[in-house]
Amino acid sequence: MTGYIVRRCIAALIIAIGVTAVVYALLAFTGGSPAVAALGTHANRYTIAAWNKTHGYDRPLVVQIASYISNLVQFKFGYSYKQGQSVGALLNENAGRTAYLSGTALVLALLIAIPLGIAQAVKRNSPGDYIATTATFTLYSMPSFFLGLILIQIFALDLHVFPALVSDNVTTTWEAVTHPMQLTLPIVTLAGLTVAGFSRYMRSSALDVLAQDYIRLARAKGLAERFVLTRHLLRNACLPIITLVGLSIPGLLAGNIITEGLFNYPGLGLLFFDSLQNLDYPVLLAYTVIGGVLTVIGNLIADIAVTVADPRIRVG
Amino acid sequence: MAEIGAQQMVEGIPPLGSPNIPTTAPEGGDVQILASGWRLALREFFSNRLAIVGLGVLVFFVVFSFAGPLFYHTNQSLTNPLTGDLAPSWGHVVGTDDNGFDELGRMMAGGQTALEIGFFAAFMATVIGTLYGALSGLAGGIVDAVLMRFVDILLSIPLLFIVLVLATRYSATVVSQSLIIGLFSWQIPARLVRGEVLTLRERDFVAATRIMGGTQTRLIIRHLIPNALSVVIVNITFLIADSILLIAYLGFLGFGLSYPIASWGDMLGNAQNAVTSGYWWLVFPVGGCLVLVVMACNLVGDALRDAFDVRLRRR
Questions:
Q1: Out of A121, B32, B162, B300, which could bridge B54 as a Cys pair, Cβ 3.0 to 4.6 Å?
Q2: Would the CB atoms of B275 and A291 count as touching at under 8 Å?
Q3: What is the average per-residue pLDDT within A41-61?
Q4: What angle do CA A248, A142, B49 make, to 5 degrees?
Q5: Greatest Cα pair distance in chain B
Q6: CATH of the domain at A156
Q7: What pLDDT does residue B17 have?
């Protein structure tokens, strides 16, 4: 198994380097020149050329990519000329709040999707199953901002339970954690989308497990149904969920951009959105690369976790 | 004993003498064709009630978006602030927006761009993906490994990020946005087609074609492509749904089509203010259209997958 993990890690490393190179090259080719960001749009081409030379942007693309990667390894993410501070500091400032939003949303989604999927599978083709299937299928087809707008209409404007926007007073991660009312709608919006993705798989995975002989055996030997469900069904049906959690990272990152933009919650998503409007390419480049690398790491951890959790697919 | 036999019969192969199955295996002579796989799949598809609903919704939106403006004339080019933000009435069935455009007319125009971008992006992604996947699968070896690692790399880049970054660089037209989305969403069809080609390559009918002297072209055109096509067709509906959602996200974030081209996402870009101002008609009808179209695509996709999956097919 160690051999498999080592091979899998090397493959992930190669893909992560590839992601960085492709994103860097794409941005370089599509012309997001950092010189224009630094000197302004009125700079003439001689000043731009001089600036490029002093900052190393006149080197061959491969060399630029290699130096960018070597900087990334040292956690140097470049400099945002629009905001006048290093990209690393900007990311660091916002990462906590985004991690809190995504983390709680992911946990909430798992807490809903796993029991829901199992209940649907156990009571399959019942009215409850149909209602749940319809609800998750609708959520699955819904843009996240529309779910957020519906929640704002109902819970903020009609019922006055939660605020429609996250208050400007929530500026630190600690304040985000200690103001649950402020964050309920963003968390539920992000979780709703994740539930939609998870519960369909959870239901079919639980259905597969229910058809297995060991479930029949557990029932035949007289094991109480709740132990059949918790000890045999739950543990086996959750195996595909491990992979899904790993695969959910790009969805969560994209969801962050939308949700943070909709609720005006200061995090990495809002930073990315502001950088898009300012054409702040160093930030866009860094966050896209980080998003890609996180995706690679998510897949890697999921693959390894599944091999550890499931002895049947343990290799060599 | 008799009972067990009957049970096995139901689950397994029909008994000899069953009307649909030839009683003797044809030896060298004509092979009796029961029905082509495509016809069986089609029959299965149309017996699925949800599929019919999904197809109906899609047809409705095509008619609504493309034929609707022929019957429901509205002004979608000249703004008129005096008639802005009017609530639904007989004159404006779904009210008017900030610029005084009739909202129902704008929903039709937005439906056109959503469907156009969805179909065009999905078509392009499918063509690129099919060619790439078939090439990779047929080449095999080191070429296949390198090509597929490149797909892994592209799959790891969050699609919304790269599409947003590119959308800031290029003029926002239906064609440019379809191109951006299509050029970055062909990885899944490529993987699917490659997987199909890899298994098909080893199948007996491929060997049989070769032994009987079939050319490489015949093999690809008559056997590999038709057999891999079902996977591609199923995937294309999901691609359309994803592209429509993606274009809505772009519009919502303010990187959608250039004014005055309408798109559902752009119409929802100001939805936050519309909701808090109580202009519900500017938010929920458009959002409803988006959800319905995406849901219809997903329903049709699910039904097609079930129809093409022989293992799920009722006997």
A1: B300
A2: no
A3: 78
A4: 110
A5: 85
A6: 1.10.3720.10
A7: 46
Q: How far apart are CA A233 and CA A122, in angstroms?
A: 10
Q: Flag whether A36 is in a domain.
A: no
Domain that includes residue A156, residue range: 94-270
Gap between the Cα atoms of B253 and A161, Å rounded: 26
Half-sphere exposure of B167 (CA within 13 A, CB side): 30
A237 Cα distance to chain centroid: 23
User: How far A185 CA sits from the closest chain B CA (Å)?
Assistant: 14
- Closest approach of B28 to chain A, Cα-based (Å): 42
- Opening angle at CA A72, ends A67 and A76, nearest 5: 100
**pTM of the complete model:** 0.84
Q: What angle do CA B166, B167, B171 make, to 5 degrees?
A: 115
- Asked if A149's CB is within 8 angstroms of B287's CB, the reply is yes
B interface with A, Cβ–Cβ below 8 Å:
149-150, 152-154, 156-162, 164-166, 168-170, 241, 245, 248-249, 252-255, 265, 268, 271-272, 275-276, 278, 280, 283-284, 287, 290-291, 294-295, 298
A104 belongs to a structural domain: yes
Interchain contact, A141 vs B294, CB within 8 Å: yes
Distance CA A101, CA A87 (A): 21
Provide the number of structural domains found in chain A: 1
Residues of A in contact with B147 (CB under 8 A): none
Residue A133 near residue A171, CB atoms below 8 Å: no
Q: Tell how far CA A41 is from the center of its chain.
A: 34
For residue B243, what pLDDT is reported?
Answer: 92
Please report whether residue A106 resides in a domain.
yes
pLDDT: which is higher, A222 or B85: A222
A290 occurs within a structural domain:
no
Q: Do B276 and A26 touch (CB under 8 A)?
A: no
Residues of chain B with C-beta less than 8 angstroms from the C-beta of A143 = 245, 248-249, 252, 265, 287, 290-291, 294
Q: What is the mean pLDDT of residues A193-214?
A: 85
Tens of pLDDT along B281-306?
788 888 999 999 999 998 888 888 87
Query: Which residues of chain B does A288 touch, with a Cβ-Cβ cutoff of 8 Å?
Result: 157-158, 161-162, 165
